[in-house]
Specification:
Number of helices: 17
CATH superfamily of the largest domain: CDP-glycerol glycerophosphotransferase, N-terminal domain
Distance between the termini: 58 Å
Strand content: 15-25%
CATH class of the largest domain: Alpha Beta
Largest sheet: 7 strands, parallel
Structural class: alpha/beta
CATH topology of the largest domain: Rossmann fold
Number of strands: 15
Helix content: 25-40%
Shape: globular
Radius of gyration: 21 Å
Strand order of the largest sheet: 3-2-1-4-5-6-7
């Protein structure tokens, strides 16, 4: 019942407008309550859009603790069931609670992978770093999405984006992201194009795929397909339905490569995932939707199938095949988002139905895969140094020292 009410509200422009205004007032009042407290140089607040210990913020928090374990790390969680994911050095605080706003008002640095809510107040000596969760975009976001889709425009009526007023530094892993982020949010500040922290592990070879597979009870001699579509706005992110037949895809992969394959199926945060013949009994399709961090799954996967997710661009860094399966493209463009780029210019392998998908898989060669990965990297003008997390940590510590009178030379 609650989800149905939320869904109805999101379709009403007036209710959405009033909801955002009420939220803005509550946040502004909450932060003003703590505006007299001292900013603590040794405190950093992290927040991810799903509240979990993952994405770009995860490797930064880990590296920050390794660099200086005296720094207090606060994390805004959204669901208590995931608190067990946090290591001991993290202090989880309920996101958007009064306690969270107290931490925001007194931390020297904020690190987000989504936009701060409207009503947020940044004080003198506070430093805000943006680590957006989708560097290699396919779909539009924020202001660009509002212009192109009436459904998204209605559900975000009354929403304001404060990045240009509050953000001090945005990290990017591709040159195209600078233009994409600027036109989507109105941001005109400083960028650092050194990489996305979550992709460090895809380029620096620091992760052990064998250990990850072992932890998931997957044999080393088994190849892995990752199926990870993005959310849908028009159904309030509740369900993604696709006619993709993952059993048939696995049979095609086994026939082509003459070896055993399994599929890890992962829905976007906050969504459920429905696929063709999903109720067929099978040990070869494993639901990984609640798994903490998709980066582990990218590391062990031999192929990725997604639809409109920026994960496709990330996976191209592995030089393994990535395919966009867009069986609902007309509905998606009508009810959800437009593309951030001319669809004809996107270099991805694309299939619109199961026959095209199977033909595409059977036609793959090592040369085609490597060439396509290069084209994707060139299209986005990717720059991934493998040291993005360390660079963010360096910025945090530099700011910390600057407000304690120990400015780095």
């Amino acid at each position: 019942m609650q989800r149905q009410i939320v869904s109805l509200v999101k379709k009403n422009k007036f209710f959405c407008f009033m909801g955002y205004k009420a939220k803005e007032l509550r946040i502004r009042i909450s932060m003003l309550l703590f505006s007299f407290k001292r900013v603590d140089p040794g405190k950093v607040v992290f927040a991810t859009f799903n509240g979990r210990f993952n994405d770009n913020c995860f490797p930064v928090a880990k590296k920050l603790h390794e660099t200086d374990n005296s720094i207090q790390i606060i994390w805004g969680y959204k669901d208590k069931k995931y608190i067990s994911d946090f290591p001991d050095y993290i202090k989880p605080v309920k996101y958007n609670s009064l306690a969270f706003f107290r931490e925001m008002c007194t931390a020297s640095s904020w690190v987000y992978n989504f936009t701060v809510p409207q009503g947020t107040i940044k004080r003198k000596n506070q430093f805000y770093i943006q680590l957006w969760h989708g560097d290699r975009a396919i779909k539009t976001i924020a202001n660009e999405a509002r212009k192109s889709n009436k459904h998204y425009s209605a559900s975000t009526s009354g929403r304001k984006i404060y990045e240009n007023e509050l953000c001090d530094l945005v990290y990017a892993g591709s040159k195209t992201f600078v233009d994409y982020w600027s036109r989507s949010t109105g941001y005109s500040g400083k960028f650092k194009i050194v990489g996305t922290p979550r992709c460090d592990c895809l380029v620096d070879n620091s992760a052990d795929p064998h250990a990850i597979k072992k932890s998931l009870n997957i044999r080393d001699d088994v190849s892995v397909l990752l199926y990870a579509p993005t959310f849908r706005d028009h159904c309030s992110r509740e369900k993604v339905t696709s006619d993709i037949d993952l059993h048939s895809v696995l049979e095609t992969l086994k026939a082509k490569y003459n070896k055993e394959w399994i599929c890890l199926k992962r829905s976007h945060s906050g969504s459920s995932l429905s696929t063709l013949n999903q109720d067929s009994p099978s040990d070869c399709i494993i639901d990984m939707s609640t798994y903490r961090d998709i980066c582990d799954l990218l590391i062990i996967s031999d192929m990725l199938i997604t639809d409109y997710s920026s994960t496709a661009g990330d996976f191209a860094l592995t030089n393994k095949p990535v395919i966009l399966y867009q069986d609902d493209i007309d509905e998606y463009l009508d009810k959800d988002r437009s593309f951030a780029w001319d669809p004809e210019s996107l270099p991805f392998f694309v299939a619109y139905n199961m026959n095209e998908l199977k033909e595409l898989i059977m036609g793959l060669t090592d040369e085609k895969i490597i060439d396509n990965s290069r084209k994707i990297q060139d299209f986005y003008q990717m720059i991934e140094t493998g040291k993005a997390a360390q660079d963010v940590v360096d910025e945090i510590i530099r700011h910390q020292k600057s407000i304690t009178g120990k400015v780095c030379s």
